[in-house]
Amino acid sequence: MAVTTPQAPETATREIFMSEALREAIDEEMTRDATVFVVGEEVGVWGGAYAVTQGLLEKWGPDRIVDTPIAEAAIAGLGIGAALTGSRPIAEFMYSDFMGIAMDQIVNQAAKNRYMFGGKAKLPLTYRAPFGAGTGNAAQHTQSLEAWFVHVPGLKVITASTPYDAKGLLKSAIREDNVVIMFEHKAIYAMRGHVPEGEYLVPIGVADVKREGDDVSVITYARQTHHALEAAEQLAAEGISVEVVDIRSLYPLDTDTVLRSVRKTHRAVVLYEAVRFGGFGAEIASQIQELAFDDLDAPVLRVGAAHAPVPFSEPLEQASFPDTAQVVEAIRQSLQGVY
Amino acid sequence: MAEQQPVSTNGRAGGDDASNGVLEQLTDDQLRWIYQIMRRIRRFEETAEEAFRAAKMRGALHFYIGEEATATGVCAALDDGDFITSTHRGHGHCIAKGARMDKMMAELFGRTTGYCGGKGGSMHIADIELGNLGANGIVGAGIPIATGAALGSKLRKDGKVTVAFFGDGAGPTGAFHEGVNVAATMNLPAVFVCENNQYGMATHADFANAAPIHNRGPAYGIPSASIDGNDIFEVYATAKEAIDRARRGEGPTLIESRTYRHKGHTVLDQKNYRTREEIAEWVSRDPIERFVRAVNESERLDEDDFQAIDGQIELDIEHAVAFAEASPWPTVDVIERDVYVE
User: Fold this and answer.
1) Which residues of B touch A251 (CB under 8 A)?
2) Strand runs labelled E in chain A
């Protein structure tokens, strides 16, 4: 599927995979700051379950690329303890589903230390975690759990839809003096996109309009951005103009960009891959109706995954989360104002 | 039942008050420091309890009284720059690591001048600059954080050691296993100090842990010791050995320090899970009294030394309470402040 990166400079001609873009971000920040290190399961010899840290052990050695046993609570705690004492760790969970094992360390420790300690602690800590469905890995390796973490004050939550954003966001996260969780969609690690040579950052908390349009806004993030873009392309042939807003940062949320888009198009479809009920899309939809109610010509529509664990069998899995056809249908419903 | 006759596994067992030569290795200043810290912990908590019962503070207070020798003996063996993680029963660790009693008291009172500006309370006092990475309301949760601090020290080559304090109630948690196992596999400069005060709320340590916690040392391939936690000299000597070993890059040690909380689990206690006789037996082995007896027998410090220290502590405590009571409450505009570094 095509990747559009309207924010990439015109001079960018180089195309690389998202996994490579993430690796470049880590490598560059390790070069820039000697306190940055990577810790996690299979990040070293194996090179990361999704090859993000491939080659980094050979380049940086075992003191900067630290393999751990299977121990997610310890991985989360390693990041916290090292961050509190002067390091800048990047701790990787092999799958975001495994964060359940580390939940106390993330939610009760990492997120709260600074606040509980009266603002005197600093945790320059990045957690990375692959998420999302479509890979045939069944229910314990495919979830989209971002809403859990967005609900916890003290955490920032980001996710990228393009290699350009992935690199720039991860570099920003590593430089943050806060705990940032970067969710990386597994299905787009192998997607290629423009990434310029040289230094750039994508700021945390700034959404990106991936496609401009006038008739309806699709507010989305991560892999679903591409389904939105495909839907927009299909509908353009019918003369329907769709704007696609990739929020990139769930917390902090760039509400201004979302509202600006909705005030222009007067219609909003919120698209996400997590279980629809109680998902982060509910927060976006709620903010739109609270802050732009008078601008709306139709109810805000949410498109999300089925209320079921992600099934294994391919036809079931593919039908369990939104695809381009569902996005097209939702946009039509929004335009008709009939559900 | 609690073991009644603690016997050291590291050869220092002796008469109840015998220091086995450890006292002789300590300077007079170190002896004064030890006495001062143990007395500070006790008087701080006695005073906090009075304030709590007078409804001057709220929430939960977990008392360390009776366990003073463990925090004091371990911290006596640490360097100033070393790190600790602490527990919900953390006042003792905090004071032994050098915290100010006025700022601690103000935190317990919920005032802006407290260590956490009133946002943490008794269970969340930390002082990163002093190396105290925080008390913790979650049992066992400090252990992986201590492992992380030790990993950081190893990678930064800063020569520091991290001590994780935790109780017998943390023995059954997954965090204990993950934290200790990873520290052992990475040979990190960490010391895991289990304060076995016999009970997690009303649950006895022997009910909660399938086998004695110190038995787990060999399972992780690290040295372990079971010590009389009410014997400050044994605590100090054992901790010193473990800390020196960690600092030399020889990896972590597990120490089980057998002790007892004289008070209930918190200010509120069911009082139905242990006998008066058991409490009296442990109170008779009070770590501060044992220390004083041993020092008196050695004729190293005299009554004037103890009185001077006690006198100063009373002044400090009076000041701490007055400071806390006179300090302002936080204003509500700070509710969402310091969630993030801005």
Assistant:
1) none
2) 15-17, 36-41, 65-68, 88-92, 125-131, 155-159, 179-185, 192-194, 208-211, 216-220, 242-246, 249-251, 268-275, 301-305
